[in-house]
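question for whoever is on the cluster today: can someone run the full assembly for these? two chains, 495 residues total. i dont have access anymore since they changed the login thing
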Amino acid sequence: MHQRRVVVTGLGTVTSLGNDVASFWTNITNGVSGVSTIESIDTSDIATKIGAEIKDFDIEAYMPRKDARRMDRSSQLFWVATQQALADAGLSYEEDDPRALRAGVLAGTGIGGVQTIEEEMATMFERGPRRMSPHGIAKIISNMAGGVASIDFHLYGPNSTTVTACAASANAVGDAAEVIRRGAADVMVAGGGEASITRFALGGFSQARAMSTNNDDPEGASRPFDADRDGFVMGEGAAVLILEDYDHAMGRGADVYGEVLGYGMSADGYHITLPRPGGAGAARAMEAALAHAEMAPEDLDYINAHGTSTPANDRTETAAIKLAFEEHAYKVPVSSTKSMTGHLLGAAGAIESVACLLAIKNGVLPPTINYTTPDPDCDLDYVPNETREVGIRTAMTNSFGFGGHNVSLIFGAL
Amino acid sequence: MERSDIESKMKELLVEELGLDEDKITMDATFEEDLEVDSLGVVELLMALEDNFGVQIPDEEAESLVTVGEAVDLVQKKINA
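^ ran it for u. tokens below:
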């Protein structure tokens, strides 16, 4: 059977570094941090008081208030990224368009509508169940970003949601590519949205001792692979990629960012929050992605790391890269854009896929900022602090989620 | 409470609580067709009416409401009862 190829023809992003792809790329290639003191919620009794919040975003600039009220903020962000990505790809569907039956959605989110969970819980405890919003459940459930996107953008093909914590949208992109490969759709909206800068989520992650408490230096707090890293910094945002069957894209003369070459997954099978020491689990995901792409380790030109800035992740991911790439591990540039965007949790895989595709398209590697003190356990080329202009043809992004979910995606120039 | 007070409060609730477009709200406007209020929106409206007018409106009575004016009638009847 003819093997269908999957290409990326549109991108959309909303992050702390701007409400569109151009500002995201400009900022991450200029080493700009999106992290600041959190202003949207009271952090007075939470250990972590910093985050990468989206600034100057008003959902009513994109849709009437009546429609916005159906959605949790996480879904709203996904919606806006979807709108951008479809426009970038030059695709739009009317209700009666037969092509809409061949266009679907795969959305990923770590926690779903956590802001609404918090609001509705408060209402239930303070005023009773009969004062809860009739929209509450629909806003909370994790699949609603994809549900609303299918309604509003007329995407009537396969529609599903991945909820593998911080690997969620990497799974969404990978699964969406598989949907196209097996011929079940021609176009897939793939990505994720997360809006977890809430007292509930910040408090919970803080209690798990997973977050940086470097509150006095917000912009320096996310410092992946640096010896002084002390936890991740929560970010919020959404990223969407338009994946498209190669022939479908060529048939309509679409511009292509790159191709989805490989998708690898594994489970650590070790601990609910900690990575398996030594990185064997994560290494197997990278190896699976290489095998899927039919690539040798030395064929890979860039790794956008999971690189969360937690002590355990960055040490383990470094070890995993060495297991999977052997001597090439010391040659391939590895950077973590979480040093600038913070950790978008379930949306991380998608935003970092966007970073990989733009790195391929522009021949520029975004740096790992805040890298000042080497850690003996982290001894690879992390593209420290300075953007690097170097033509690349292939890039891999890693995403690892609580529960031990490991996902690696490989993209390539067409 | 005067009927005009109920009308203006009703408009305010439809804008504030349901996010409707103020220009579209007339006493003849239908919830379902003109204002595109779905079944979830009807529940929101009921809650808003109960909170703001101190009345109790059973679902059966709410289901029969077609226009904004009818909702005003119902609230007026409940207040005066």
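summary bc i know u wont read the tokens: Helices of chain B lie at 3-16, 39-53, 59-63, 68-80. The radius of gyration of chain B is 11 Å.
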